[in-house]
Amino acid sequence: MAMNEFLNQAISPWMNQNGPDSDIVLSSRVRLARNLQDFLFPTVSKGEQDAHLTAKIKHDLFEDDTENSWEFEFITMGELEPVEKRVLVEKHLISPKLAEESVYGACILSKNEEISIMINEEDHFRIQCLFPGLQLLESLNEANQIDDWIERNFDYAYDETRGYLTSCPTNVGTGLRASVMMHLPALVMTRQINRIIPAINQLGLVVRGIYGEGSEALGNIFQVSNQMTLGKSEEDIVGDLTSVVKQLIEQERAARNALLNTSNIELEDRVFRSYGTLSHSRIIESKEAAKCLSDIRLGIDLGYIKNIPRNILNELMIKTQPGFLQRYFGGALSPDERDIKRASLIRECLQDKKDEN
């Protein structure tokens, strides 16, 4: 697959599929952190080792391993322009750390962008599997298959007592981070989210924004993930997170029903005001765009808007990010220019979706 295909399509192929509870859960992700024996961890290694290891991984996994049944593309970070790396970050295919700090890093991507294996990020391997809707167990099963494939070729740094050894002590043990991306507009509107987040934190889970640690919950999209990796099995971690997510789904649906019963006309007005804003604006900032897209997605889920597909939120949340905008319009853009181009792209996309339906 040509690199341009990863960069030019805003929505990953797996995003076009419907998963369980996909009206609220946008995606499920499992990430495994792994390091190799006899190699310094990336946080303390030098460039010469990193370059050697990246080349060795490419050779051993792609040139010598005939058991690889996945359609993968090997992408070296040093060969990408800054805006290209930024697009991959915006699509959640690589981390900001890999894009900004790892000169000798690389990424192995599957054709459908469901699987992403980061090399020489904080750890030697970061295996990531993404599924639509609430499918954490399915994500874990696929991540374990990739893990087994890599382990047939390399020896992991592993301790019988501590488990998998990682650069950050918080990942020691299973090395597993499971997360779910959720659209929770009704809980935000009713302000229930303010009491829910502290309660979730007390359960050993964490709630973050759309791009993980340190990011904002743009468009009422929240990432819920585990904090504990040591002392629990992978299945228990995924099971506990799934249980909490199911409760959040019930609370969001209850909040939506309450808004329909008590503030139906106000809610409908909010949805169509946002639709009008996005359909006619000539300048729009990213935060306002994200808010309006969230309202439109809610309007689609509640049946107010019938001629726009549900995945519009996923697609335009990526298309309106700085990296993708600059890639789409073919050059560097100032913040003011991005606001103009963002508005233009949204108008164009909404019109295309209406024409398709």
UniProtKB/TrEMBL annotation:
Enzyme Commission code: 2.7.14.1
One GO process term, biological-process aspect: phosphocreatine biosynthetic process
Keywords: Allosteric enzyme, ATP-binding, Kinase, Nucleotide-binding, Transferase
Gene Ontology molecular function: ATP binding; creatine kinase activity; protein arginine kinase activity
One of the record's GO cellular component terms: extracellular space
Ranges where the Phosphagen kinase C-terminal domain occurs: 24-255
Regulation: Appears to be allosterically activated by the binding of pArg-containing polypeptides to the pArg-binding pocket localized in the C-terminal domain of McsB.
Annotated positions binding ATP: 27-31, 92, 126, 177-181, 208-213
Positions occupied by motif RDXXRA motif of the pArg binding pocket involved in allosteric regulation: 338-343
Matching InterPro entries: Arg_Kinase (IPR023660), ATP-guanido_PTrfase (IPR000749), ATP-guanido_PTrfase_AS (IPR022415), ATP-guanido_PTrfase_cat (IPR022414), Gln_synth/guanido_kin_cat_dom (IPR014746)
Catalysis: reaction(s): L-arginyl-[protein] + ATP = N(omega)-phospho-L-arginyl-[protein] + ADP + H(+)
Similarity annotation: Belongs to the ATP:guanido phosphotransferase family.
Function: Catalyzes the specific phosphorylation of arginine residues in a large number of proteins. Is part of the bacterial stress response system. Protein arginine phosphorylation has a physiologically important role and is involved in the regulation of many critical cellular processes, such as protein homeostasis, motility, competence, and stringent and stress responses, by regulating gene expression and protein activity.
Record-linked PANTHER family: ARGININE KINASE 1-RELATED, ARGININE OR CREATINE KINASE
Name by which UniProt lists this protein: Protein-arginine kinase
Higher taxonomy: Bacteria, Bacillati, Bacillota, Bacilli, Bacillales
